[in-house]
Amino acid sequence: MRHELFYERDELFDVNMVITISIDVEGTVTEDEAESAFRNAIAANEILNTKIVLDSNGNAFYEENLTPRSSLYKADGDLDVIRINEERRRFKVEEGEYIRAFVKENDAGASILFLMHHLGGDGKSLLYFIEDFMRFLSGAECDFKIMRRTENRAKLDAVSSAVAEYYNKRWCGKIFTFDDLDKSFESYWSRRISTIETEVIDEDEMAFIMTKCHEAGVKFTAFLTARLISDRKGIMDIGYAVDYRHDKNRSMGNQVSGISIKYRYNSAKSLMENARRIQRKLDSKLQAHSKGSYVLSFVSRLNPTLRDAVSMEHSGYFHDKVSYRLAKLMGYVGKIKDYSITNLKVADIPVRYGRYEIKQMMFAGPVVSYGQNLISVVTCNGKTVISRHTRKEIK
């Protein structure tokens, strides 16, 4: 089995690719039971039994891997401290390491932290992996799931095609290796950490908010956007992750795209009026996106090693006139997005598994190189958790 990295190539040399989900589980979880459930869940997902291979021409592939490196550990300390430390330790995707899980037992059951490299899948992929893990933990079985990847429908317009061709022709063609990634990663994270702040909205408060949203004709994401930027001046550049599972499959794999809007908050208008205006912009972008993803169409036209170089420009490891100009165009250097928002909505997995129950869940997407404030939302078991994931320089 061999599949070339295509739309997901941008995740290969990006140093900000860790997706986080933590769950609080009620019910006794032993170390042996957790380890067995984790191994079974890994075996049940094809993509987690691959590794990333680079050839001498700079092409990258998912290849079958008989010794997956994803691991589960027993945790004694603070899980957020563990997350900070693990985020700064590179996932060895070339050895098949996509997920690290940490189990911390408590009186009620356990808190479990899942960290996944984006090449293992998107936020929903990790959600579905947790479902597999919980099913195996409860003694149930799961079907084997083949890997699924983004399927794009769009054709690129002539101007954008010409822009991509312009950069391809002028690119020097440098090929990067995993040794380069190690050096880039170490240098970048030696002077940075990321923080996650959370807000929990209970079921009654969320019901009140959604009633107000319904009356105003807006969805929660538009409301959240308006609330986030209500005290900001100037035009905000806001990106949104968009689920790209056209057939609603529940397989693991990177099946996400994105859209963006620009909006200046009007302080003379109410919060909900601003949310309505944001909703109209979102609806327009989503309607166009339903015909195909512009972002995916554009990056797929670029030389793969040039896409690597754009990530290396952000990390500061590599500089070239052509890749720098493209990195600036794509928002990897210079002016980056003010906010990036990803909303998993109500987690579409069960909360009860035999004697176990997921009491609460927190989701945080990676602070991708073209963003600085990643806002993530998930609702589970009646609680909506909003996280703000931010990179910070170490002084």
SSE blueprint:
Layout: E1 2-4, E2 18-26, H1 31-43, E3 50-54, E4 60-64, E5 71-74, H2 79-87, E6 99-105, E7 109-117, H3 123-137, H4 158-170, H5 178-189, E8 192-201, H6 203-216, H7 220-229, E9 235-243, E10 256-264, H8 271-289, H9 294-299, H10 304-315, H11 321-330, E11 339-346, E12 352-353, E13 356-364, E14 373-380, E15 383-393
Parallel strand pairs: 5-6, 9-11, 11-14
Antiparallel strand pairs: 1-4, 2-7, 2-13, 3-4, 6-7, 8-15, 9-10, 12-13, 14-15
Structure summarized in a few sentences:
With 395 residues, the chain is α+β, with helices and mostly antiparallel strands. 34% of the residues lie in helices and 27% in strands. It is globular and about 60 Å long.
Mean of residue pLDDT values:
95
- Walk across the major sheet and give the strand order: 5-6-7-2-13-12
The outline comes out as: globular
Low-confidence stretches: none
Helix content: 25-40%
% residues in beta strands:
25-35%
Order of helices and strands: EEHEEEHEEHHHEHHEEHHHHEEEEE
Q: Radius of gyration in whole Å, from Cα?
A: 21 Å
The description of the largest β-sheet is: 6 strands, mixed
Distance between the termini: 46 Å
Strand segment count: 15
Q: Would you write up a description of this structure?
A:
This protein is an alpha+beta fold. The chain has eleven helices and 15 strands. The strands form three sheets. Strands 5-6-7-2-13-12 form a six-stranded mixed beta sheet, sandwiched between helices. The longest helix is centred in the last third of the chain and has 19 residues, at 271-289.
